[in-house]
Amino acid sequence: MKLHEFQAKEVFTKYGLRIPQGIPAFSVAEVKEAVQRLSQANPSLQKVVLKSQVHVGGRGKAGGIKVVNLSDAEAVSETLFGMDIKGLPVHKLLVEEAINIAKEYYVGITLDRNARKTILMASSMGGVDIEEVAESHPEAIIKVWVDPNIGLTDYQIKQVIYGANLPAESAGFIKALYKIYTENDCSIAEINPLIVTADGQVIAGDAKIDIDDNALFRHSELLSYQDPAEVDPNELDAKAAGLTYIELEGDIGCVVNGAGLAMATMDAVKYGGGQPANFLDIGGSSNPAKVTAAMKILKRKNVKGILFNIFGGITRCDDVAKGIISALDSMGGIDIPLVIRLTGTNEELAREILTAKGINAGSSMTDAVSEIIKLTKG
Amino acid sequence: MAILIDKYTRVLVQGITGRDGSFHTRQMLDYGTSVVAGVTPGKKGQSLEGVPVFNTVQEAVHETGANCSIIFVPPRFAADAVLEAADARVPLIICITEGVPVQDMIPVYDYVRKQGCRLIGPNCPGLISPGAAKVGIMPGHIHTPGRIGVISRSGTLTYELVYQLTRAGLGQSSCVGIGGDPIIGTKFIDLLELFEADSDTDAVVLLGEIGGNDEETAAEYIAKNMKKPVVSFISGRTAPPGKRMGHAGAIISGSSGTAEAKIEALNAAGVPVGETPPQVVELLMERLKA
User: Fold this and answer.
1) Where in chain B is the domain with CATH 3.40.50.261?
2) How many domains does chain A have?
3) Domain around A269
4) Chain A neighbours among B 122-141 (CB < 8 Å)?
């Protein structure tokens, strides 16, 4: 689960990290109010930053972050609220006091899959995409790996601070960031940029926190940060039905059991000249209701045809067949091509159930994929 | 004699009385696996299909000499279950559970390694040496004994590939699902090494997917160390970046973990990569003839 910058900064504040004064705003009127409040708190304030709150990187480059005079904030926020950043509409802005930046650094904590350890990274080249720094100046990123039995140590923090020429005050930021990372089951906790201001203060300019979805069960306090406006409604419905669904651009709906096979099915559709409309994993169980939910979502998405690719293991093919029949009954039939491939546990039974309703089901994935492409062309 | 498990492997089931644990214990017994013990705290004295249930792993291992454990406990208890098995020095621990918090697995992996045990998974279908033993949740009947090794990050995709292999007359020595999580106990290269040394394996199929760079590391290893042919398949060529594709570990982050990079690395190591599962079987047959 991704947190918005203003949410991540709330977490930062709880852990005592210094951040710019800021107020989230959901409308132009709220931007106006936020500007008033900020300038009341700081009478010498001349400029504010309007930062679009969407779950994508590179907001600044995409024009989603603007530094403006107080008097221009309303007008500029109006254009920002109408914007799309990499396909995501802007519904929220963070209105912040503009900081007089002298120098920008990078500090981030994440998982190193290869080392199977938590890794702390820092660089004096902050404020830009750290991946680009890793490409162009790999030596500018200092890394240390955390021993799981010891935790992040003071000497490691020193290694990073001296290695990347960070200001001495950043030690406190790094300690707090590590605490945030471990106590909240983060998959990423990042400050980019960590700013040194013209008057020598250290402050977290941006905040990025992603939480491990697998650990959300023990972080009920973080659930309120989930933002339904950022998730595709079909993906939300699928989640409620116990499905894993991801929206794609194409027009061939795919219903598959298992994530690996689901990806391979999308790939095969593309390889055969079609365009997959989605990733959909109905999971390992055999609940016919899941199949019904899946078909309803795809129908609503206006796909040109639906491909079922089921390899029965724990999933029983007859349960999937029952789900298909009950979905068709409740939807009053279907007016787009339906191609079904079933193999594995109880496939004969499944075929009987489907044939009785005049529906054919093949057993070859390759044939099923070419069939759905042929039927949905033109 | 295949790798990791054979007909002499003595299997312990952690979570044997649960819904999945009991179902798959029966399936494993039907396949001929020697399941010798189960563990569910508080249920000592019960039995399932004649398999005795114990309160702790330590007790189960002491009483039955189990040397392999398969774990079917819910995600929030899975890390502790692995630690318990490692504490009892069970040499091979297979964690089927999906949804284990990633930060839980970091100290667990470290402990397992220090105890000298091997962990497979979490979030995996387990493993099978066809005709000898099945310690996992895969449908047994699609497999047939033979000389092809299979390693995979996924479940049903492996079944698909195995099904195609069996239909093409290519039996399998062992098939191992290593799991779809960011932190897993056993990686491609660990098993490539075992298959290379296994006199019952002629060639290996490596089924990878987007996310991480284990396929790239495997490619490097193959180029340097493997004489046996390896063919591969990478799923997720059409996956959008930044989205977790079902498996917790299957995500393209920024520019890392893409299918293209993996395919390129494998090709450079002389490993052909099929576009579809049937094509992988064709590539394998070509390599075996050559």
Assistant:
1) 138-289
2) 3
3) 232-377
4) 125, 137-139
pTM of the model: 0.93
- For residue A78, is it within any domain? yes
- Specify whether A251 is located in the same domain as A189: no
Q: What is the pLDDT of residue B254?
A: 72
Tokens in use for A112? Answer: 């190193």
Query: Do B93 and B85 meet the contact criterion of CB atoms below 8 Å apart?
Result: yes
Helix, strand, or coil (residue B187): coil
Task: Look over chain A and give the mean of its residue pLDDT values, rounded to a whole number.
Answer: 92
Domain B10-120: CATH architecture, name and number where available: 3-Layer(aba) Sandwich (3.40)
Rounded Cα–Cα distance for residues B120 and B92 (Å): 8
> Each residue of B191-239: pLDDT tens digit?
999 999 999 999 999 999 999 999 999 999 999 999 999 999 999 999 9
Cβ–Cβ contact A243 with B under 8 A: no
- ipTM attached to this prediction: 0.91
Residue A297 within any structural domain of the chain: yes
Q: Taking each helix axis from N to C terminus, what angle separates A28-41 and A73-81, rounded to the nearest 10 degrees?
A: 140
**Would residue A372 count as lying in a domain?**
yes
Cβ of B55 under 8 Å from any chain A Cβ? no
How far is residue B136's CA from residue B134's CA, in Å, rounded to a whole number? Answer: 6
Residue A31 CB-density burial (10 A; 0-12 exposed, 13-18 middle, 19+ buried): buried
Answer yes or no: is pLDDT of A286 > 70: no
Q: What is the CATH topology of the domain spanning B138-289?
A: Rossmann fold (3.40.50)
* Nearest residue, CB atoms, B237 vs list A117, A212, A270: A270
Give the pLDDT confidence score for residue B288 in this predicted structure: 93
Give yes or no for A286 touching B (CB within 8 A): no
Q: For residue B193, which amino acid is it?
A: E
What SS3 state is found at B246?
Answer: coil
